[in-house]
Amino acid sequence: MTNATAVIGAGSFGTSLAIQLARRGSTTLLWGRNADKLAAMQEARENAQYLPGCHFPVKLAATADLPGAVDAADDLLIATPSHALRATLEQLKPMLREGQGLIAACKGLEPNTGKLVHEVIEDVYGSSRPFGVLSGPTFAKELGIGLPTAVTIASADEAYAENFARLLHGDGFRAYWSEDLVGVEIGGAAKNVMAIGVGIADGLSLGANTRAALITRGLAEIMRLAIAMGGKAETLMGLAGMGDLVLTCTDNQSRNRRMGLLLAQNRSVDEAIAEIQQVVEGVKAAPEVLRLAQRYEVDMPITAAVHGVLIGRLSAVEAVNLLATRPARAEVVAD
Ligand SMILES: NC(=O)C1=CN([C@@H]2O[C@H](COP(=O)(O)OP(=O)(O)OC[C@H]3O[C@@H](n4cnc5c(N)ncnc54)[C@H](OP(=O)(O)O)[C@@H]3O)[C@@H](O)[C@H]2O)C=CC1
Ligand SMILES: O=C(CO)COP(=O)(O)O
C-alpha cells in the first residue's frame, strides 16, 4: 500500500510512530512547532531531545513546514499532548483537503470540558472526514528501537481504523482495530491517573500486594466509567485498558508512575514536572476523569484519592489511609 502520512507533534510518541510508519514503507513527514528542533532532527536523523538513539528510516523526514506536510499527506496522525489537541486541529483546519482523515494518539481529556479526544475532533471538524484514535501499551522508546509492540486503533468508521492499522502493522508491531472509541479513550486517559497512584504506593514502599490491588481495583473503576459512558467491558480487558494500565503502573519508563514516585517523596507537582521534562497527562486528566465520574454517577475512589494528592488536599500517606479505611464490601468489578 503506498501512503504518505504527516505526523503532527514531534515529541517522543509522535517521533516513534513516525519511525514505525516509515519502517513500514509510508512516506512520513514529522512536524513539530519548533523549527530549530526539526532542523536539528533532520540533520542528525534522530530526535535527540525526546527519543535519543532511535535512528530515522530513509522514508522519514522532519519538517517545520506544516502546510507542505499536510499537502503531501494522505492521512494525518496527531501526537500532541491532549491539552494542545483543539488548538492543533484548528490550526490544521484550513489546510486539510476533502477526504483526508486523521488518527489521534493523545491519551487524555480536554482540560476544563472533560471532552474525549474524538469529541474534540467532532467539535472542530464535524463528521466531514474519517477519524479515530490510537492507544495501547506503547512506551515510545521501545517502539522507536523496534521492540515488539501492540496497539488498538478505534474509529466509528471501522474500515478507516483497519486501513490505518495496516499502515503501521508489521516488523514486530501489531495494530488491532476496534469500533469502541469511548472504551479505548477512557482506558488511555484514566490509566495515567492510576499510574500516579501506583507510583505513590510504590514510592511509600507499600509492597507488591498493594500494587496488584491498586491495578485491579483501578481497572474496576475505569471499567465502570467506560461502561457508563457507552464503552464495552471487553475493550477495557484489552490493550487500551488492562494492557496499558499494567504497563504504565509497573515500569519506570512511565512519566505518570514517576510523578507518583516523586509525590511520595513529598515533592510538589511542579517540582516533579520540572524533573520529568515531558508531558505527564495524568495531572490534567485527574480532575476531568473525576468530573466524568460525577456526571455518570460512578464511584472512583482511587482516582479521587490521587486527585486529592495532586491538588494538595491530601498528603501521599493520607491518600493511602483514606483508601485503606474504606468499609468492607462485596467485590464488584463492573455493575
Ligand atoms: N511517550 C510515550 O511513550 C507515549 C505517549 N503517548 C501520548 O502521546 C501524546 C504526546 O505525548 P509525548 O509525545 O509522550 O510527549 P512529549 O513530552 O514527549 O513531547 C511533547 C511534544 O508536544 C509538543 N507540545 C507541547 N505542548 C504543546 C502545545 N501546547 N502545542 C503544540 N505542541 C506542544 C512538544 O513540543 P516542544 O518540544 O516544542 O515543547 C513536544 O514535541 C500524549 O497524549 C501521551 O499521553 C501515548 C503512548 C505512549
Ligand atoms: O502511555 C504510555 C505508554 O502506553 C506512556 O505512559 P506515560 O505517559 O506515563 O509515560
TrEMBL record:
The active site is at 191 (proton acceptor). It is an enzyme of class 1 (oxidoreductase). GO terms for molecular function: glycerol-3-phosphate dehydrogenase [NAD(P)+] activity; NAD binding. Its main location: cytoplasm. Sn-glycerol 3-phosphate binds at residues 107, 136, 138, 191, 244, 254-256. Residues 180-320 form the Glycerol-3-phosphate dehydrogenase NAD-dependent C-terminal domain. Its EC number is 1.1.1.94. It comes from Solimonas marina. This is Glycerol-3-phosphate dehydrogenase [NAD(P)+]. It catalyses: sn-glycerol 3-phosphate + NAD(+) = dihydroxyacetone phosphate + NADH + H(+); sn-glycerol 3-phosphate + NADP(+) = dihydroxyacetone phosphate + NADPH + H(+). NADPH binds at residues 12-13, 33, 50, 107, 140, 255, 279, 281. NAD(+) binds at residues 9-14, 140, 255. It is found in: Cytoplasm.
